[in-house]
Prior knowledge:
Elements: H1 2-7, E1 10-16, H2 19-26, H3 31-44, E2 49-54, E3 59-64, H4 69-89, E4 92-95, E5 104-108, E6 112-117, E7 124-128, E8 147-149, H5 153-163, E9 169-172, H6 176-179, E10 184-191, E11 195-203, H7 206-215, E12 218-221, E13 224-230, E14 237-241, H8 249-260, E15 267-274, H9 281-295, E16 304-309, E17 317-324, H10 327-340, E18 349-355
Antiparallel strand pairs: 1-3, 2-3, 4-5, 5-6, 7-8, 7-9, 10-17, 10-18, 11-14, 11-15, 12-13, 13-14, 16-17
Helix pairs in contact: 2-4, 3-4
Amino acid sequence: MERVEKQKVKCLGAYGMGDQTFRDFVGPRYAKLKDIEIQLKEIADGSIVILDTDGKTGEICLYSTKYVTSLLIQHVENILNALRRKFKDEKSEQYLSSSNQGTRIVISAGCNVADVLMPDEFKSVIVVSDPFNMHFILPRTREIGEKLPLMTTQEAEYAVEESKEEEIYARPTGNARLQNEHRFRVKFEWCRRKSKGSAFVEFSEQRIADNILHDCRSLLIGGTRAVLNPSKNGGSQIFVKNLNRFVNEAVLRHSFVTKFHIGDNHIVAASFIRERVQTSRSELDLIQQRLRAHLQMHVKEGKYDLFIKPPKDQDFTFLAFASFSKIEEGQNASAHVQQNFRPNGEVLNSSITLQAVNSCL
Length: 361
């Protein structure tokens, strides 16, 4: 009975929170929640620990044995308090004018006006260039394009002045002239994790999948005859193999839609089985050097910005962004890159994400 009593669990605490705090606590696909459970189990030293969550109500309940109550409660509350402080301290700048120029107000939590900034006044900066070689005056940020709040206008002005000749430099937020300095922005994208030649296609109804498999077991997709089989997961999924590795989701969807006369909305998802790869910092540096060399055939150093987004393990494409002071130079440089740059032999696609044009009345 004593052993059973020790294993008896009870609710140690229930915590209600808003949508944003709940999302930050559990993380994407509940990844952070799993890490927290691991930490709690280590604290509990073998005792049972359960974190029950309810996304609809934004509530988290902690269950465990009574012998480790205080330590577990303290750990959960420390995490929640840190998230709440972060949310409470967040501020945003908004223009008073609909033209996005002139005087700005700083809004804090609860829609309270924390400060008023004149057109040439700023208290925060945006980091520009490579975030992995961060300058000493910008110690609080790790992401390119991240807004870095500073304590005073003098501190912000110092950051801009002292870093203007560096590879990594700061620009003031809210300054219309500097924000429009680079008026043409292009996104480059290319494959990072190659397809293994197979994919799962999920349909909105099992009836559709059954009819397709009944009609045929092969389909011409992207110039290659692919094989269709029922998915081992069952339900409304079809397993497709023998795909050309250049086939993407759009081609796969189009092939099913046109062959079997179904709507695109009948395909819920199309997911490829891809190679697992690790991308090192040195590889990113090499790609960036090669990309810069191609860009500088058409635009001078200092007249453009280039950033390659560090990929996560699950990302199957690389993303790079280039912004240019002159639209014509940006068009020529991006066209040259698309035609001549082949990272790891992959085809590179480009698209314009920003094009600002000055106009006079």
